[in-house]
From TrEMBL:
GO terms for molecular function: hydroxyacylglutathione hydrolase activity; metal ion binding. Keywords: Hydrolase, Metal-binding, Zinc. This is Probable hydrolase PNKD. Residues 1-23 are annotated as: Disordered. Its cofactor is Zn(2+). The keyword rRNA-binding does not apply. One of its GO terms (cellular component) is mitochondrion. It comes from Sinocyclocheilus grahami.
Length: 345
């Protein structure tokens, strides 16, 4: 845990945190150094993969049937199946039921993903990988070995295991005529993070966004390899998509994220209702996705950096010499800081 040394002196609510608490906790050079070291070992060396394999083994023992109960969503013959993997990740198997073609997003644990593909009796065409972290990319190679013609998509900048088809911003990927994905380059969490939009126009329904670790239900990923303004422009990419877009995030973080949002913006009614629903779902270990971007824009603080209600709640004001985008980046930075402290307490 990052914060253990200063935890005892710290007051409980994030609203009562002083700049000094934040400085001591997050920006302390020693802590930063340790975190950076650990992060490099995880992402750049074989140790990361060994750690991932251990996590996989532990999660399979602890949750033999998966960490959550999920059910498929079918939109005009396109079937989306969330596959619970590790302790809180989701992979997504997307099937065109007319052609039996399937692709999978972020298959970090190949075993349950393969079981799902076999049960559905479909042929895997491709892996769409959002970013290099092992809890998203750890199964790429195994699936490529198992399904010989399987392609692996991702950003070349992110050192994706097994990558065969490097992508650029706004590339489209077609599987037959009905499965059309568009890749958006969304750096910040990692330098090469990509999100995938399944185009609803090809099937006459809403689009589906597979957001990896960029956006979660009521949350956003940590900025490991980018600053707040990079992250802000990636979040704005999500904000510009249609309101009816379904959000399929990389982790089951809904409960924690909404409790945090409730601390930040205590007067947000939509968020309160969503939290009640999420508590009900999680009480039965049910999956909380998909939400819609219309909903997210109303309660996800990280998609609300333009909102005056949020500014008031955070006690922030635009400075005279500060342009709107820099101000919104500062709002995002403040949110991220509070969230890091919230998570570590
Ligand atoms: Zn990640």
């Amino acid at each position: 845990k990052l914060m253990s040394s200063s935890q005892s002196q710290r007051p409980k609510g994030p609203s009562r945190l002083s700049p000094r608490d934040i400085h001591n906790g997050i920006k302390h050079p020693g802590v930063l150094f340790k975190t950076t070291c650990r992060y490099s070992l995880y992402t750049r060396t074989k140790l990361g993969y060994i750690f991932h394999k251990r996590q996989m083994r532990k999660a399979r023992e602890r949750y033999p049937a998966g960490h959550s109960r999920t059910q498929p969503t079918i939109i005009n013959g396109i079937k989306i199946i969330p596959v619970p993997i590790l302790s809180d990740n989701y992979s997504y198997v997307v099937i065109d039921t007319a052609s039996n073609m399937a692709v999978v997003v972020d298959p970090a644990d190949p075993q349950p993903v393969q079981a799902c593909l076999e049960e559905e009796g479909v042929a895997l065409q491709a892996v769409l990988c959002t970013h290099k972290h092992w809890d998203h990319s750890g199964g790429n190679r195994a699936l490529k070995r198992r399904y010989r013609s399987c392609r692996v998509y991702g950003n070349a900048m992110d050192n994706i295991p097994g990558l065969t088809h490097p992508l650029s911003d706004k590339d489209t990927i077609d599987f037959g005529t009905r499965l059309r994905f568009r890749a958006f380059y969304t750096p910040g969490h990692t330098a090469g993070h990509i999100i995938y939009l399944l185009d609803g126009r090809a099937i006459g329904g809403p689009s589906s966004l597979f957001s990896g670790d960029l956006v979660f239900l009521s949350g956003c990923g940590r900025m490991f390899e980018g600053n707040a303004s990079t992250m802000l422009s990636s979040l704005d990419t999500v904000g510009s998509l249609n309101d009816d877009t379904l959000l399929w995030p990389g982790h089951e973080y809904a409960k924690d994220n909404l409790v945090f949002a409730a601390e930040v913006e205590p007067c947000n009614v939509v968020q309160k209702q969503k939290l009640l629903w999420v508590l009900q779902q999680r009480g039965q270990r049910l999956c909380t996705c998909p939400s819609t971007l219309a909903e997210e824009k109303q309660y996800n603080p990280f998609l609300r950096s333009h909102s005056q209600d949020l500014h008031r709640a955070l006690g922030l004001q635009q400075k005279q010499d500060e342009d709107w985008t820099s101000y919104r980046a500062r709002v995002l930075e403040e949110l991220r800081r509070r969230k890091d402290i919230y998570k570590d307490r």
